[in-house]
Design a protein that fits this description.
By secondary structure, this protein is α+β, with helices and mostly antiparallel strands. It has helices spanning about 1-5, 10-15, 20-35, 45-50, 60, 65-75, 75-100, 155-160, 195-205, 220-275, 290-300, 315-320, and strands at about 105, 110-125, 150, 170-175, 185-190, 320-325, 330. Helix content is about 50%, strand content about 10%. A hairpin with a 4-residue loop joins strand 1 (about 105) and strand 2 (about 110-125).
């Protein structure tokens, strides 16, 4: 930092640049800690957080990329406004529909919305399934879901299931995601869709095809609406994004053409500077054609008469002037007058 400040031609301009100010702010806390290392100042460690601003130095490396992004967003302002407007309208409408489809019933005791979770239905296990003698302590029946199958108390078989021959046969209560029969019992869970504003999060995540999975519909109507929200999100977001992508391609192409034009202009300027007849390469040689072109220009611009012709050096004058690699000598002392 000190070396750069000492070598800069304009110190004021150096400190006015934002990237240099970021460097100073990022380095200053380190030296402050060194100077007050022996002093017990409370809250001094907070200055270390300021060093995180060095992350912004990456914009100094990719300045053209940042310029390209800013110009693209500036040209796509109308498309961005349209994207925000359509997304907001779709979020409000879709969130309202999904809320009414997934909120379930209100539990006055718990003061929350409860929706159906699983349906527990009776499952008969015959003598050919599992061990010949089925015991409640050793035999289980897998349900394939997070909730396992539950033994129905064999003591109730005589009254509720008289046709079951226990212990070779058994009865289980197993969970299902759908209601298998009217005899199934329903279990409930707290609905995550407890209000329309809380459903905004699920709607935005679904429309942008992110899908965190922290909230999801479980009812048939809610799943149907969720499918419509996914398709609507693709349509609403894809149209403005296409405009932004097109503007990005045009901006990038213009930037490339401007760079090429700048390089070509610099090359032409260097070529013009090399055509003045001077010894640019300092090798002791003189460009003869360049000298004649300069004389032609002087004749046309300043009215110097160098001989017959319109703006061309007279042939006799060319013959009277000789060039060699060591020096430029003029043998004729007078120029032919224009007639």
């Amino acid at each position: 930092m000190v070396a750069r400040v000492a070598s800069t031609p304009d110190v004021k301009l150096y400190f006015k640049q934002v990237m240099n100010q970021i460097d100073i702010v990022a380095i200053l806390p380190f030296y402050l800690e060194l100077m007050v290392a022996q002093a017990s100042i409370p809250g001094l460690s907070v200055f270390r957080v300021v060093r995180l601003v060095r992350v912004f130095r990456m914009f100094k490396v990719s300045r053209s990329s940042v310029t390209l992004f800013v110009n693209t967003m500036a040209k796509s302002s109308k498309a961005l406004y349209m994207l925000i407007f359509f997304t907001a309208i779709a979020t409000i409408i879709c969130s309202s529909l999904v809320y009414y489809a997934e909120r379930g019933t209100y539990n006055t005791e718990l003061e929350m919305w409860m929706r159906p979770y699983l349906y527990f239905c009776d499952v008969f296990v015959d003598a050919n399934t599992g061990p010949a003698t089925k015991s409640t302590a050793t035999y289980t029946l897998e349900s394939g879901l997070s909730e396992p199958c539950v033994w129905i108390d064999p003591a109730t078989y005589a009254t509720s299931y008289p046709s079951v021959n226990y212990p070779s046969e058994a009865m289980f209560s197993c969970p299902y995601t759908y209601k298998r029969s009217d005899d199934c019992s329903t279990t409930y869970e707290q609905s995550p869709f407890d209000s329309i504003p809380s459903t905004f999060w699920w709607c935005l995540v679904t429309m942008t095809t992110v899908g965190y999975g922290d909230m999801f519909p479980t009812q048939a109507l809610g799943k149907a609406l969720a499918g419509c929200v996914m398709i609507l999100g693709i349509i609403v977001i894809a149209l403005p994004i296409t405009v932004i992508g097109s503007n990005f391609a045009l901006t990038f192409k213009r930037m490339v053409l401007e760079d090429e034009a700048a390089k070509q202009a610099a090359a032409e300027e260097n070529e013009e500077n090399s055509d003045d007849g001077s010894d640019d390469d300092l090798d002791g040689t003189v460009d003869e054609d360049g000298v004649y072109r300069c004389l032609d220009g002087l004749e046309g611009d300043e009215g110097i008469g160098l001989g017959e012709g319109d703006g061309d050096v007279d042939a006799s004058f060319r013959n009277d002037v000789t060039f060699d690699d060591a020096s430029f000598s003029e043998e004729a002392t007078t120029m032919p007058a224009r007639t």
